[in-house]
């Protein structure tokens, strides 16, 4: 095989356009906010997923910074190795970031993430939460919410039961991060790029492991219009289902207040095709009521009013 010469063009942006993500992708909105907030002195280890596939088709890359991909489950382990190498060199300036989707974070990579957190390494982990395995066909993940229709939890009728979609409640990764004693843990959505950037910059000032989780609406997976990712991201927070949160040293220091009158979860669900089955009968209405209770529990838990 002939060696291929790869030329490096002048980099003007930390995350350049021309990638292969869907138009209006909520994940790319969040990733751009993250990349711009990180600045130039950073190395990123990225898990397998939409963000990796769409931004780095060999031999191209949209990233204007050192970036490495290995396997689905081991972005945190690769980041640990990078951190150790920088420490050996005496480099205290370069920041190390691990990134993954909800599949690589909530499920496949959870054990290695836990090890990284237990070791107390100075690494920022960012999860882009699409609430499904968006890259491989919209299968359910540990982040999939109650009643969402996915290719492995489809809504519909069967011989013995009526399928409402997912029968699981979303795994609480924020609580798992806090249980590891992380000094900084935050949650945001693609509806608030400035909030994302602020939290990334804050995390970089804190010594030790940090975790930021960002809800990133998926255009095909959520069956929304390409113009709706920011709107849906805002609605997720305004209903209380996915509030903007910030913890330091285990204490909640910021939680986004919801505007009054409260936005009902029905307004959030009805714009998404993955929940359209809930609007067709009484059984669906019961599920909407249950999801509203989940939002109301968050409002009380985080004092969002």
Quick recap:
The chain has 305 residues and is of the alpha/beta class. The chain is built from 11 helices and 10 strands. It has helices spanning 26-38, 50-55, 75-89, 102-107, 110-118, 173-179, 193-204, 219-222, 229-238, 265-269, 282-301; strands at 42-46, 67-69, 95-101, 124-129, 155-157, 162-164, 184-189, 210-215, 245-248, 251-255.
Description:
- This protein has about 300 residues and is α/β, with parallel strands linked by helices.
- It contains eleven helices and ten strands.
- It has helices at about 25-40, 50-55, 75-90, 100-105, 110-120, 175-180, 195-205, 220, 230-240, 265-270, 280-300, and strands at about 40-45, 65-70, 95-100, 125-130, 155, 160-165, 185-190, 210-215, 245-250, 250-255.
- The strands form two sheets. Strands 2-1-3-4-8-7-9-10 form an eight-stranded mixed sheet, sandwiched between helices.
- A hairpin with a 2-residue loop joins strand 9 and strand 10 (about 250-255).
- Helix 3 runs parallel beside helix 5 (about 110-120).
- It is globular and about 65 Å long.
- The N and C termini lie far apart (about 65 Å).
- The model has no long low-confidence stretch (mean pLDDT about 95).
């Amino acid at each position: 095989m002939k060696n291929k010469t790869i030329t490096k063009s002048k980099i003007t942006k930390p995350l350049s356009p021309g990638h292969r993500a869907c138009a209006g992708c909520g994940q790319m909105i969040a990733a751009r906010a993250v990349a711009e907030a990180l600045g130039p002195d950073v190395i990123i280890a990225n898990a397998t997923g939409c963000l990796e596939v769409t931004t780095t088709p060999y031999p191209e890359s949209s990233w204007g910074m050192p970036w490495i991909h290995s396997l689905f489950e081991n972005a945190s382990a690769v980041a640990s190795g990078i951190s150790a190498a920088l420490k050996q060199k005496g480099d205290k300036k370069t920041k190390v970031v691990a990134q993954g989707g909800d599949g690589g974070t909530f499920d496949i990579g959870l054990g290695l993430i836990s090890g990284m957190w237990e070791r107390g390494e100075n690494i920022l982990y960012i999860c882009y939460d699409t609430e499904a395995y968006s890259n491989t066909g919209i299968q359910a993940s540990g982040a999939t919410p109650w009643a969402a229709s996915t290719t492995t939890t489809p809504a519909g009728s069967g011989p013995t039961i009526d399928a409402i979609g997912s029968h699981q409640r979303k795994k609480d990764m924020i609580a798992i991060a806090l249980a590891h004693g992380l000094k900084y843990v935050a949650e945001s959505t693609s509806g608030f790029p400035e909030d994302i950037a602020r939290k990334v910059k804050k995390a970089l000032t804190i010594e030790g492991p940090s975790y930021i989780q960002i809800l990133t609406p998926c255009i095909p997976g959520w069956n929304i219009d390409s113009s709706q990712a920011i709107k849906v991201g805002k609605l997720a927070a305004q209903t209380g289902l996915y509030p903007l949160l910030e913890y330091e040293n285990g204490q909640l220091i910021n939680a986004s207040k919801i505007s009054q009158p409260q936005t009902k979860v029905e307004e959030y669900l009805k714009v998404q095709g993955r929940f359209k089955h809930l609007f067709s009968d009484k059984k669906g209405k019961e599920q909407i009521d249950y999801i509203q209770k989940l939002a109301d529990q968050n409002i009380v838990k985080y004092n969002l009013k």
